[in-house]
Write a structure and sequence with these properties.
By secondary structure, the chain is mainly alpha-helical. It is built from four helices and no strands. It has a domain of 58 residues.
């Protein structure tokens, strides 16, 4: 987003020097990230004393039984296990292989 703002030259120079920024844009964007990070940090601090953490083995075992079991993961098909066109290999079922051998020998399948 393009925005025009008035920034104190001395403040910008000090920020660019302190952060090692090459451009004003880098300095401003990092400052905005810092403000956002500070807001998240303050939210975490507000939870101080309100959360209970049990790091024992029994606590982890209890947490595993209280949650749903993980869903099955479907692995993607390997690139070489295609139909044969893209991979350069022909996919042959056992029955088709036996039938083609029988035809080659002159017998019916």
């Amino acid at each position: 987003m393009r925005t025009n703002i008035e920034i104190d030259d001395a403040l910008m120079a000090a920020a660019m020097k302190a952060g090692g920024f090459k451009t004003k844009k880098e300095a401003v964007e990092e400052g905005l990230r810092l403000v956002r990070r500070r807001e998240v940090y303050e939210g975490l601090l507000a939870l101080r004393g309100k959360l209970q953490w049990d790091d024992s083995d029994a606590g982890w075992a209890r947490a595993r039984t209280e949650t749903e079991p993980p869903a099955a993961v479907q692995e993607p098909r390997a690139a070489y296990a295609g139909t044969g066109k893209a991979s350069g290999f022909k996919t042959v079922t056992p029955n088709a292989a036996n039938a083609s051998k029988a035809r080659a020998r002159g017998k019916s399948a």
